[in-house]
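User: I'm curious what two different proteins look like when written out as structure tokens. Can you demonstrate?

Assistant: Sure. I'll show them one after the other, since each token string lines up with its own sequence. Here's the first protein:
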Amino acid sequence: MENILTVSRLQKIRQAPLFEPVSFSLGRGEGLGVYGRNGCGKTTLLDMIAGLVKPDAGEFNRAGRLGYVMQLDGFQNALSCRDNLRLEAALCGLTGQAAKQRVLACAEQCDILSFWRKPFSRCSTGMRARTAIAAALLPEPELLLLDEAFSGLDQESYASVKKIILEKKQAGAALILVSHVWEDFTDLCETALTLPDANRRPI
């Protein structure tokens, strides 16, 4: 199986190492959960893999397109969900009719058309989560990074968001899901990495 991501002894040091050296690989359609308490370095690990933070030790090799659902989504509150997605599409390098078609396809996939003209500031937590996933799907990612994607969701929204992510995984995308709730990994991740001790085990 072709590896989408290979990580070798990756580490970030802030006065002291945040976690033990991390090593793993992910192939197409594989999921890895990253588990641990608040402040243990889960988001930092994703930021390193996304290229937003420079590692202090180790290395990684990433192939294919990347989608990242961040805790701080960076959307413009004054804009509608649709216009936020159009802005995200432009940042992905999509223009013209191709951008419009891709935004519409992702909005349909994430079931946000019923509210996508609504200002983002007036959206519920579930609406915000689905919009964030739609934005991450715009570049048709082969690796999907998800940072606390289920945080604060009610039961209905939780099931909806999980279904979207599972469909993407079943279509061949690799994913890394960060959470401090072990149950979030069910059906999405074959293995989990526990920080800060960097122990990986099957689920």
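Here's a second, unrelated protein for contrast:
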Amino acid sequence: MKKFKITTEYITLGQLLKATDHIGSGGEAKFFLLNNNVFVNQERRTERGKKCYPGDIVTIGKNEYVIADDQKNNIKATS
């Protein structure tokens, strides 16, 4: 299982597919999801806008990713 670090609250499934080089552009996400088995937490998903949060496990074919929160890059303002 590979760790995929994000610096935002979530990443959409379409963005994840592009970032992991499964698709070349965001426009390909819809067709990729309809023609390939993609699972989020063991549930098949076909929505490119599905939000993936830290702790979620995404399986794309034989590749498995765990979404991780990259805290070191998050800058939080304090009062």
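A detail about the second structure: The domain at 2-70 is CATH 3.10.290.10 (Structural Genomics Hypothetical 15.5 Kd Protein In mrcA-pckA Intergenic Region; Chain A).
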